[in-house]
Amino acid sequence: MLELQNIYFERENRKILNDINLKIDTNKFIAITGPNGSGKSTLVKIIMGIEKPDSGKIIFQGKDITELSIEKKANLGISFAFQQPVKFKGMTVFDLLRIASKKEITKKEACEILSQVGLCAREYVDREVNGSLSGGELKRIEIATVAIRQTKLTIFDEPEAGIDLWSFNNLIEIFENMREIVKGTTLIISHQERILEIADEIILMKNGKIEKIETSEEFLKNNVSKQCCKKIKTK
Amino acid sequence: MENNNIQKIDENLLDNITDYKEIRKGAYNIRKNGKGIERKVTENTNIITKKDVSGIDIYVKENTKFEIIHIPVIITESGLKDVVYNDFHIGKNSNVIIIAGCGIHNDHHKNSQHDGIHRFYLEEGAKVKYIEKHYGEGIGDGKRILNPVTEVYLKKGSSLEMDSAQIKGVDSTIRETKGALEADTNFVVSEKIMTNGTQTAKTIFDVKLNGENASTHVTSRSVAGDKSKQEFVSKIYGNEKCFAHSECDAIIKDEAIVTATPEITANNVDANLIHEAAIGKIAGEQITKLMTLGLTEKQAEDEIINGFLR
After folding, report:
1. Strand pairing class (B159-168; B144-146)
2. Of all helices (H) and strands (E), which one includes residue B257?
């Protein structure tokens, strides 16, 4: 359903992505991991259209989408959850969910999706998405805006960052739901063992290249001891 | 022959500054082209025409609860300069909503202007919610000019909350809002302004906190587009143990110019005064986020501005 062909992206004489080739099937849960600066975030931004590759092709469901704008890609069925959620003065949580769902939704529907991300819905639905919300709350709202879209491809850029353990458990549930209901593919940048554990495949990136692609089992057996991923602290 | 009845064009103007169907439910006074054309008083709210100057006195009896009073002004005559003095006398422990505003329709080349001077005298313990909306329309090149003055005098324990909005069609405006606050009073102002083309808008707040535990919160949110100009001046004087927070937040676009001049003066060691001012364009990351939800750049900008000015 998604294919990247010979993707290059270079800035300030540094090859951030150096000939990336990748094929991802439908209904897969794929994790991307690797050290900081290995090109993970740039790669997913290129898929969404937030960054444009210097060369190479992106094929999504058989269509070349390399040159398409962000919103065209979004409307074709790609969603993107930001690592750092964006704040808006004046716009409410309900506004964002309404825009995300692309139809008129009721407060009740908005509340349902907020409950899924572990927010007590009635308290949040009319709140402004501004600095009065904590980092964790903003993160959960960000995830809700993506979950409500139910697209064929959903990308998460480090969804666990800034999220507490309780929400983390909800997060795993959301991924599982998305897989079951939408039958879409999830592409997720993560360092967390719990997320890597539930992945079908794990892509390890290093220095702008894909070093290897392994199943979750293979990867965790070979790499946990090398501190490629972090264990979630449990109480 | 001048028509003093409400016509379709008037209904539209009235609908843009308030909900037209609601006007006649309580006390009201409709002023059109410089003259009062319709009025209703109630048991608790009396409206009397001023003798010395153009305008009305509105008297609300003490202990009046939850009445809604409409005082809209409409101008459809090009070239008219209308000045009106409306004084609101709100009795002790009353709690009322006052909805005012001005709509101008100008299809011709002469300037149409309305200067409304609204003074609020609140007796002890009175509460007022004051909603004021300004709106302009019409295809003429004559300018639509609105210069409202609002003066608020709060006696002990009273409070006034003012919501003003000027979102569309006003070419030039100078808005002055003054407040003199006695002890235990609260004055909250929330202003929304949007300008485009070559429109200009100047807002001046002047609030004096004269009594112990007086407080004020002034919020101005504005969007300036094209070649429009906006100026925000806020002067707050803390003369007693008091609290004040003023906040100016502007989105700037295109070749617009926005100036914010905050001035806070503490004349008492227990005065706690805060001013915040921020001017900037729409953050690129906000547009990007909404585009990832499927909006075009223009749709994203509109959503951000609508939310900001809500």
Report:
1. unpaired
2. strand B257-266
Which chain A residues are within 8 Å of B289, Cβ to Cβ? 82, 86
Nearest CA distance, A226 vs chain B (angstrom):
35
Residue spans of the domains in chain A: they are 2-226
Q: Among 3.30.160.270, 3.40.50.300, 1.10.3110.10, 3.40.50.720, name the CATH number for the domain at A2-226.
A: 3.40.50.300
CB contacts under 8 A, A 98-117 vs B, are 99-100, 102
Single-letter residue type at B123: E
DSSP string, B19-80: -GGGGGGSSEEEEETTEEEEEE--SSEEEEE-SSSSEEEEEE-TT-EEEEEEEEEEE-STT-
Rounded Cα gap, residues B46 and B98, in angstroms: 13
For chain B, 310 residues long, give each residue's pLDDT as a single digit of tens: 456 677 888 888 888 888 778 888 899 999 998 888 899 999 999 999 999 999 999 999 999 998 999 999 888 888 888 899 999 999 999 999 999 988 888 888 888 888 899 999 999 999 999 999 888 888 888 888 889 999 999 999 999 999 999 888 889 999 999 999 999 999 999 999 999 999 999 999 999 999 999 999 999 999 999 999 999 999 999 999 999 999 999 999 999 999 999 899 999 999 999 999 999 999 999 999 999 999 999 999 999 999 999 8
Q: Do A71 and B295 make contact, defined as CB atoms within 8 angstroms?
A: yes
> Complex ipTM, two decimals?
0.92
